[in-house]
């Protein structure tokens, strides 16, 4: 069983009469890339700020690396790197100097750590440039470099690919994958680009109106979102016999209403329909179905819209 890097129990936060986080229970295990999904205002950034100590909880507990005592948690936060909302930067200082200030504030020895993170995020050649002359995407990369300085074990990244061009998004994805696979860095990441999260996250938390409505692994998501041919016939038993005997597959599922989910021949619905018809099954409906992450998220939010 993996150790939990982060665990919250009934974590809540209110601003006056508005509850922005409502009894959130979340677990992120060592080695996870945890995709945090929710609409604007759902509570993603609030949770990240609570974990990183930028704001104070109203109730509930936060456990980091197995510690939940207030004093010990502060020490555990030294093992984290964070990029939350827009990074705080000194516009008239250079990229390098911004990182140097950040290094000193964190108490990290050795200037060589600066060159290391600059090369990791692809900003080494821009190190002497004033921050005010950087593009939005470059500023985002600088914020990521600040989060990476000091070799953190746990990264909290709030919309880290916001403002990046497609090539930069690919570079950051590769970097995060490398940090996770080669250095066992655990990552909590939010993004509005769900198709990007789908490519490398191995678990997900979905938040809506301040409540965590689901935690799901990538394997569970694949099972729920798996593509299939949805088939309705006049005789499911005869259709199944044909699928096994003629199409030579048992990769199907018969639903309670006798509809059939066929997980092969996804690009050949006409062939499947023809085979069934030629072997005595009248096909009432055949269609390619299955959700992607965006579809799954939208349906989950819709089901919970009045919760």
UniProtKB/TrEMBL annotation:
GO molecular function: ATP binding; ATP hydrolysis activity
Start and end residues of each ABC transporter domain: 6-234
Domain of life: Bacteria
Entry keywords, A to Z: ATP-binding, Nucleotide-binding, Transport
Pfam families named in the record: ABC_tran
Gene3D superfamilies, alphabetized: P-loop containing nucleotide triphosphate hydrolases
PANTHER family: ABC TRANSPORTER, ATP-BINDING PROTEIN
Membership in a protein family: Belongs to the ABC transporter superfamily.
Name of the protein this chain belongs to: ABC-type multidrug transport system, ATPase component
Organism: Clostridium acetobutylicum (strain ATCC 824 / DSM 792 / JCM 1419 / IAM 19013 / LMG 5710 / NBRC 13948 / NRRL B-527 / VKM B-1787 / 2291 / W)
Lineage of source species: Bacteria, Bacillati, Bacillota, Clostridia, Eubacteriales
């Amino acid at each position: 069983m993996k150790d939990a890097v982060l665990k919250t129990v009934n974590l809540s936060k209110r601003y006056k009469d508005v509850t922005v986080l409502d009894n959130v229970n979340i677990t992120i295990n060592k080695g996870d890339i945890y995709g945090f999904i929710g609409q604007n205002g759902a509570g993603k950034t609030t949770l990240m700020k609570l974990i990183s100590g930028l704001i104070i909880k109203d109730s509930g507990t936060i456990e980091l690396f197995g510690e939940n005592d207030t004093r010990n948690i502060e020490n555990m936060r030294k093992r984290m790197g964070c990029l939350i909302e827009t990074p705080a930067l000194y516009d008239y200082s250079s990229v390098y100097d911004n990182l140097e200030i950040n290094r000193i504030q964190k108490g990290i020895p050795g200037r060589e750590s600066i060159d290391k993170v600059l090369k990791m995020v692809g900003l080494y050649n821009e190190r002497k440039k004033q921050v005010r002359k950087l593009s939005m995407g470059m500023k985002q990369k600088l914020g990521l470099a600040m989060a990476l300085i000091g070799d953190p074990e746990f990264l909290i990244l709030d919309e880290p690919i916001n403002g990046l061009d497609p090539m930069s998004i690919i570079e950051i994805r590769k970097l995060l994958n490398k940090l996770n696979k080669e250095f066992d860095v655990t990552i909590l990441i939010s993004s509005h680009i769900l198709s990007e999260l789908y490519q490398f996250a191995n678990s997900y938390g979905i938040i809506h109106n301040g409540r965590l409505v689901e935690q799901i692994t990538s394997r569970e998501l694949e099972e729920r979102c798996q593509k299939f041919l949805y088939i309705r016939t006049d005789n499911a038993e005869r259709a199944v016999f044909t699928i096994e005997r003629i199409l030579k597959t048992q990769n199907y599922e018969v639903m309670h209403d006798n509809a059939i989910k066929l997980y092969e021949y996804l690009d050949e619905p006409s062939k499947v329909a023809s085979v069934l018809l030629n072997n005595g099954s009248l096909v009432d409906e055949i269609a390619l179905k299955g959700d992607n992450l965006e579809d799954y998220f939208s349906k989950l939010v819709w089901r919970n819209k009045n919760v």
